[in-house]
From TrEMBL:
GO terms for molecular function: lyase activity. This is Chorismate-pyruvate lyase. The keyword Transmembrane helix does not apply. It comes from Dyella japonica. The keyword Heme does not apply. Keywords: Lyase, Signal. Residues 1-27 form the signal peptide.
């Protein structure tokens, strides 16, 4: 009897240990992003959110700080901090109108920087940036060359302003003219398929002396919606 009791006790201990181990392993698994359902309510919510983000980006000079606020408001990561992850590779060709927009001659040196702006595990934006190093301080140029600090944070001491050249919604969750349609698209019951890029901004940054010093093309990804839709979180 004692042997049976001792064996039963060990079985309980081992069972408890296995349960704790399984729970620990599950706790370490990365959380999968929520799935948006393909229905009218989710499409309306996605469109409203993209338009809200677009308006926020248009009304503030720093896309980095805007994305940090967005990340925090929608709990995309434990800490709402944007990290610029440098993307190595060859420089992209300079857009044909860039030198005129930056008000520089054909011989003025330019530098190119491509980064992914991420909050936690989510890459929210991919940015191509051509800038005039002679219009930045030596310390700024050094930090841009040697670190992953977002461009907007590096040049923040310039108290720059942003002039948007274009802002384009690359994907609309609802078809054009949906507001005049008799009914919204029928629900499919499947996941809502989103393209990689959903929004694109082109802008020029100006310093306090009104000199342009940077041309940036920002492509925002569907990860800006990597949170549970409100319609799916309501009881």
């Amino acid at each position: 009897m004692r042997g049976l009791r001792r064996g039963a006790a060990w079985s309980c201990v081992l069972g408890l240990g296995s349960s704790l181990l399984v729970s620990s392993l599950h706790a370490r698994e990365p959380e999968l992003p929520p799935t948006w359902r393909d229905d009218a309510t989710s499409r309306l919510e996605a469109l409203a959110l993209l338009q809200s983000l677009n308006a926020e980006l248009l009304s503030h000079p720093s896309a980095t700080l805007t994305l940090e606020r967005w990340c925090g408001a929608h709990h995309l990561a434990p800490e709402a901090k944007i990290i610029a992850e440098r993307v190595p590779g060859e420089d992209k060709p300079l857009p044909s109108e860039a030198r005129a927009q930056l008000q520089i001659g054909a011989d003025e040196p330019l530098r190119y920087r491509r980064v992914q702006l991420a909050c936690g595990p989510h890459v929210l934006s991919e940015a191509d940036n051509w800038y005039v190093p002679s219009r930045l301080t030596d310390a700024m140029n050094h930090e841009l060359d040697t670190s992953d600090t977002p461009f907007g944070k590096v040049v923040q001491p310039l108290h720059f302003r942003r002039q948007t050249l274009s802002a384009e919604l690359l994907w609309s969750p609802l078809p054009q003219g949906w507001e005049n349609a008799a009914s919204l698209p029928a629900a499919t019951g499947a996941a809502l398929v989103m393209p990689h890029h959903v929004l694109e901004h082109r802008a020029v940054l100006f310093d306090q002396s009104n000199r342009p010093f940077s041309l940036v093309i920002e492509s925002y990804t569907s990860q800006v919606l990597a949170f549970a839709p409100a319609a799916q979180t309501r009881p």
